[in-house]
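Ticket #299: bound-state structure for adenosine-3'-5'-diphosphate.
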Amino acid sequence: MSWPSYIKYHGLALPPGAHSEESLEYAQNFAVEDTDVFTVTYPKSGTIWMQELLPLVLSGGDLTPIQTIPNWDRVPWLEEKRLKVVVDQLSSPRALVTHFPYQLMPQSFFSSKAKVIYVMRNPKDVIVSSYYFHQMATFLEDPGTWDEFMDKFLEGRVMFGKWTDHVKSWRHTELGDRIMYITYEQMIQDLPAAVRLISDFLGKNLSDKIIEKIAYHCSFNSMQANIMSNFSLVPKVYMDSDKSQFLRKGVVGDWRKHFSSEQLVHFSSAIYKELEGERFTLPWSLDGATDVANVVAQV
Ligand code: A3P
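RESOLUTION: The complex was predicted; output attached.
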């Protein structure tokens, strides 16, 4: 299947198919409600994980949404075509996801009380996940060799641009206590604790039993077995699961199997250079010593 080249939107490259001029305009004019909850991610940082987790937290553990609605309609992407189709079916409080940088959020978002959960993942694992995703998703450009893909990623010649620009934009918000930061690694390390942090942030008072239930249904294995979340409903011409699964490994530190020592130095120094002079520090060290993320300090 051959796709037209990426749509350019405020300097970002977005794959056609899911996005269109119309969907981007719709997103720009979207009327955000005070009760809306946005999960924001750079692609491959745990978006679909949050599409499973949020409806469960918001409903107090009701499994119906995750068992009956595909993830892309259950917690739609702000910028994608499906939002307009399903918006009237979303139950309140609405949960949405977006890969937009902060400055591209709709005007109504800034004056609303909508909450944001920003999920960050170690960029070394993001790029590995993205590399495989580019191989299986036919609507994305061919990633080239691993070396070539690393340069594309570092230069922002991939969908949604540079990882560092995305992180910087969301670490410099005026959102105060409307935003919480969490890492993919924290979620891997202790999922029930992460679910508790998120539910507290959303003002939900969930029992330990419900938290455990939510964590169970959001485990990698549960999601891999859930046809409403594992992308098996998507025809192979769009996502070729023989090449790679969407729910591929779900681990921390897979980068170790892919980076040479030269690539590690190249990658880390490029990321650190982009972040020079920033007030925040990353919750992981990129030199390879440890993959454990410290809790992200609020800015
Ligand atoms: P890997 O390719 O490293 O396995 P996104 O949804 O933002 O595109 O991110 C996809 C990544 O999140 C994939 O990473 C996928 O396996 C991982 N992921 C999704 N659900 C997960 C879960 N329940 N537990 C661990 N990782 C999960």
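RESOLUTION NOTES: The longest helix spans residues 123-136.
TICKET STATUS: resolved
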